[in-house]
């Protein structure tokens, strides 16, 4: 890591080299400040270029320094020194100029960017706001509306868009960036210096722009503190001086930095990256080239899985047993792509390109030359075994055979083949072309090459993957089963289904268990031939109340599928509970929350104890990316760490006589609680 300088024709070229992303660590900040001092004092220096080696210009402050005592020079102070210099400063941007990196560029007097590179202020995704002048300088260059979007949403823009907005002065071919930056600096020697902080011409805006922006994005910002703080900081730029605006920004930044939400979001940033590491699989494990994929089953899951690969440019052979099922599957894939095109997310050409990679067939033999085959057939072990046994005789040696099962035993499936080392679980979440999470289920014999290849592939198709061991429900569904069991008990004990759902939605989940059941359909796994109905759900199914698709489930639905509590269902539950001998009672929201979430944490502790998950943060990633756990709460294990394992343990002991038959407190939870430790 270092910051090199050299003078070229009167231009001091300052180049940082701090792999992997040139984060603005203490050493880099110190090096940059020293370079600016040199520029100020050395008469041979007439202008400055700030650049980076490696794959990107500074991609932000060094997140690993957060939470540690700050070390001068701070980034805001460094940027103020850059801006105040009385010689022209050009920032040469390439790769992903993000966060503090873009703020350094905003402090420079000119910005030249490599064509095709990206620029952004993603701090809000870490529960923060740009804390080194970005909220005050960006609006001065691009105007309030564009600045609000970039800062409060945190999405990067292209260098080309940045030029259109006035954020970037020039574009250059990537391989000519450094020379072009030096030429630009030389051109500006002797010219008046355009300090960003001194510009106010783009700060005018109508008064209600900020409220209108907040309202337009209310759904996206639900529960999050940082976006509102971003809006307030940008508003301050339009109402006060740069100096006062910077003070407001600093105060808001400090408030967010010390808050729970940013701690949770920073935890997830590293958790997502940690999940990609398989501790006992060497980094240099040879990968299996995957140039052709086969999918068996063109239903909801098979079609969604297929789209993931088509969208990543990987040809897919899709197998169904009957022509009309195959036609339906292909039509659904096309319909989904066309819906994305209608929203402007894809061009018609991209739709056709994806569809051209699809080969529908009725013949399993067509899979013989695939490098990876994923089955998404009916969730019945007997059927899975038949499929794998046939695949074993059809597919070329060395190909990966994957099952999309959501809870069946992958080892049992692998045992029906002559190549268990090639068998793996790839558990996609519905809708498979949209949900980010992928559980990679590692069988006892799954080889390192298959695991490493599956992990690489998940990134290629835009998934966040977590490795799970083999158990009933893997990581996510195993914990979900705990929550579902308690939810079913709570409504027999006196809570209403809508109370249970409300408590979880208030906690930050997108919906509660009964809303989810109605959405998915109450008849999943229901056998109409069962005689005695042993659950409320079966009674409702028998009555034809099978969820949203029948306009009635736990809720009654209007034509727009808006659900309202059903007095009839309340009666059905009360009668069922009475017959089952439940004494109904008032149940507080707090008890509902504890009964739903503490058993999940307990199951997570068992999953860690059994080595089903590699680390607690993997469990957090599963729940945030697969089940809608609010990102600003960091995941169930992070949340347990925040409230304390002791609180969870005491809660479970308090509810012990109401928890499911045979419920056991995890030794890991007890030990963590008693030692005052943490899961993460
Ligand atoms: N600080 C420290 N380490 C970082 C880092 C950062 N800002 N960004 C990435 N890394 C590490 C990452 O943990 C991983 O480590 C490796 O680099 C490769 O990252 C004052 C306060 C730049 C788009 O939010 O979005 O500036 O796992 O796997 O997929 O206003 O990294 O290899 O050990 O993600 O090619 C604002 C965060 C910070 C950008 C590259 N900046 N980074 O993606 O690689 S806050 C960000 C990213 C701030 C100021 C505020 C991505 C990337 P390891 P990677 P990638």
Write up this protein.
The chain has 680 residues and is of the alpha/beta class. The strands form 4 sheets. An 8-stranded mixed β-sheet has the order 12-11-10-13-14-15-16-17, sandwiched between helices. The two termini are 29 Å apart. The chain binds (2S,3S)-3-hydroxy-2-methylbutanoyl-COA. Residues 20-21, 23, 59-64, 75, 96, 98-100, 103, 122-123, 126, 128, 130-132, 134, 273 line the site of (2S,3S)-3-hydroxy-2-methylbutanoyl-COA (T1G). Residues 20-21, 23, 59-64, 75, 96, 98-100, 103, 122-123, 126, 128, 130-132, 134, 273 line the site of (2S,3S)-3-hydroxy-2-methylbutanoyl-COA.
Q: Summary?
A:
The chain has 680 residues and is of the alpha/beta class. It has 27 helices and 19 strands.
Number of strands: 19
Secondary structure: helix percent: 40-55%
CATH hierarchy: architecture of the largest domain? Alpha-Beta Complex
Low-pLDDT ranges: none
Largest sheet: 8 strands, mixed
CATH class of the largest domain: Alpha Beta
Reported by name, the CATH topology of the largest domain is 2-enoyl-CoA Hydratase, Chain A, domain 1
Structural class, by secondary structure, is alpha/beta
Rg result: 28 Å
Bound molecules: (2S,3S)-3-hydroxy-2-methylbutanoyl-COA
CATH superfamily annotation of the largest domain = 2-enoyl-CoA Hydratase, Chain A, domain 1
Strand content: 5-15%
Mean pLDDT: 96
Spatial strand sequence of the major β-sheet = 12-11-10-13-14-15-16-17
Provide the domain count.
4
Separate helix tally = 27
Oligomerization status of the protein chains: single chain
Distance between the termini: 29 Å
Shape: globular
């Amino acid at each position: 890591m270092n910051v090199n300088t050299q003078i070229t024709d009167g231009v001091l070229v300052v180049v940082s080299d701090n792999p992997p992303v040139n984060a603005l660590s203490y050493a880099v900040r110190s090096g940059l400040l020293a370079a600016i001092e040199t520029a100020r004092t050395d008469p041979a220096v007439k202008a400055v270029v700030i650049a980076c080696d490696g794959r990107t210009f500074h991609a932000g402050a060094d997140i690993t320094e957060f939470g540690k005592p700050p070390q001068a020079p701070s980034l805001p102070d460094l940027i103020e020194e850059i801006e105040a210099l009385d010689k022209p400063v050009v920032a040469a941007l390439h790769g992903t100029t993000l966060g503090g990196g873009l703020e350094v560029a905003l402090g420079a007097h000119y910005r030249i960017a490599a064509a095709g590179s990206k620029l952004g202020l993603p701090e809000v995704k870490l529960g923060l706001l740009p804390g080194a002048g970005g909220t005050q300088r960006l609006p001065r260059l691009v105007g309030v509306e564009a600045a609000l979007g970039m800062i409060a949403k945190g999405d990067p823009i292209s260098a080309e868009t940045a030029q259109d907005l006035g954020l970037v002065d020039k574009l250059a071919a990537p391989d000519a960036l450094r020379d072009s930056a030096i030429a630009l600096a030389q051109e500006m020697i002797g010219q008046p210096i355009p300090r960003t902080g001194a510009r106010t011409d783009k700060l005018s805006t109508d008064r209600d722009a900020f409220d209108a922006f907040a309202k337009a994005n209310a759904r996206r910002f639900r529960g999050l503190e940082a976006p509102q703080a971003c809006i307030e900081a940008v508003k301050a730029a339009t109402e006060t001086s740069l100096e006062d605006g910077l003070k407001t920004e600093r105060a808001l930044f400090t408030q967010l930095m010390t808050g729970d939400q940013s701690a949770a979001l920073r935890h997830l940033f590293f958790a997502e990256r940690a999940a990609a590491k398989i501790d006992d699989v060497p980094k240099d494990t040879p990968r299996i080239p995957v140039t052709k994929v086969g999918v068996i089953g063109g239903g909801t899951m098979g079609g969604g899985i297929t789209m993931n690969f088509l969208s990543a440019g990987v040809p897919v052979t899709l197998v169904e047993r009957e022509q009309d099922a195959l036609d339906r599957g292909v039509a659904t894939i096309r319909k989904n792509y066309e819906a994305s095109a209608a929203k402007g997310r894809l061009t018609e050409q991209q739709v056709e390109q994806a569809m051209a990679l699809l080969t529908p067939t009725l013949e399993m033999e067509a899979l013989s030359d695939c490098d990876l085959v994923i089955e998404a057939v009916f969730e019945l072990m007997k059927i899975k075994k038949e499929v794998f046994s046939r695949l074993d005789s059809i597919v070329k040696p060395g190909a990966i055979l994957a099952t999309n099962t959501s809870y069946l035993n992958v080892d049992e499936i692998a045992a029906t083949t002559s190549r268990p080392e090639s068998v793996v679980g790839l558990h996609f979440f519905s809708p498979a072309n949209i949900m980010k999470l992928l559980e990679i289920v590692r069988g006892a014999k799954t080889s390192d090459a298959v695991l490493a290849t599956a992990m690489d592939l998940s990134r290629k198709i835009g998934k966040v993957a977590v490795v799970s061991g083999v158990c009933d429900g893997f990581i996510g569904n195993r914990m979900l089963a705990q929550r579902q069991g308690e939810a079913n008990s709570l409504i027999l004990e006196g809570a209403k289904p809508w109370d249970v759902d409300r408590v979880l939605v208030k906690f930050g989940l997108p919906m509660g268990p009964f809303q989810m059941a109605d959405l998915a359909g109450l008849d999943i796994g229901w056998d109409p031939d069962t005689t005695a109905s042993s659950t409320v759900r079966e009674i409702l199914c028998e009555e034809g109340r099978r969820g949203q698709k029948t306009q009635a489930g736990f809720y009654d639905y209007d034509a727009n599928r808006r659900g309202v509590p059903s007095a009839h269902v309340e009666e059905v539950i009360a009668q069922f509970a009475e017959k089952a001998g439940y004494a109904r009672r008032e149940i507080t929201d707090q008890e509902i929350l504890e009964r739903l979430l503490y058993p999940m944490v307990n199951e997570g502790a068992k999953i860690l104890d059994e080595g089903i998950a590699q680390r607690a943060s993997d469990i957090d990633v599963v729940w945030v990316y697969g089940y809608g756990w609010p990102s600003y709460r960091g995941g169930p294990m992070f949340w347990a760490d925040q409230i304390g394992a002791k609180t969870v343990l005491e809660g479970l002991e308090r509810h012990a006589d109401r928890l499911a038959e045979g419920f056991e407190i995890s030794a890991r939870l007890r030990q963590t609680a008693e030692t005052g430790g943490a899961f993460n």
